[in-house]
């Protein structure tokens, strides 16, 4: 509910502002240790990204309440925003977007880790689990760039707004696609913030969508094996439907004004 989200936001904001906060039956304050604030900045940013990786990966609609709190905290405490990006880029290089190249002397395990895979006891995680985690983080990012905390003073611009989403999309289309990954993440990204980008960029946005269909989609198709067709077909259906209806629907779970009255 909106009221619960406000409580969570106020608690985090109070903690970062140096006030005393109740946590786990104890009273804590960042002033209790010289590095207290640095530590909290770092851990909080890490937790936001973990929620993308775990919570949003399993429940897509969770992206919106988590993102609106992250965005609001970012606006008041920019250091947290910098660290959210740092954690996000490290765990999910596709959020930059960046595809790390294999360098001589790098072990295969280290390279897999650079690509975002979890490696435990020399075992690399399953592809579907990897894609699920990457999707969660991209969806969280796509939600953050379009949402603002509704109770802020709203004087300035969004600390990391839709222009970053436009840039992300343009950079993705300037890179050679990767089988499975590119189709999955483009779909995730556009499903979450396509509606907001459409409203902001209008004609330019539809030119971009046409470019994806006419030019970029065939390039993804060319490198996709028969076992990887699922993500590609889902992305194709989404593209066709949006271009046909000249509309990208509001994402499921987006926060309507009534939410804040709950």
From TrEMBL:
Keyword set, alphabetical order: Coiled coil, Cytoplasm, mRNA transport, Nuclear pore complex, Nucleus, Protein transport, Translocation, Transport
Primary subcellular site in the record, as a coarse category: cytoplasm
GO biological process annotation, one example: poly(A)+ mRNA export from nucleus
Entry keyword annotation includes Coiled coil: yes
Pfam families the UniProt entry points to: GLE1 (PF07817)
Subcellular location: Cytoplasm; Nucleus, Nuclear pore complex
GO cellular component: cytoplasm; nuclear pore cytoplasmic filaments
GO molecular function terms noted in the UniProt entry: inositol hexakisphosphate binding; phospholipid binding; translation initiation factor binding
Statement: the UniProt record of this protein carries the keyword Glycoprotein: no
Signal peptide positions on this chain: none
Function of the protein: Required for the export of mRNAs containing poly(A) tails from the nucleus into the cytoplasm. May be involved in the terminal step of the mRNA transport through the nuclear pore complex (NPC).
Family per record: Belongs to the GLE1 family.
Family annotation (PANTHER family): GLE-1-RELATED, MRNA EXPORT FACTOR GLE1
Name this polypeptide is given: mRNA export factor GLE1
Organism: Nothocercus nigrocapillus
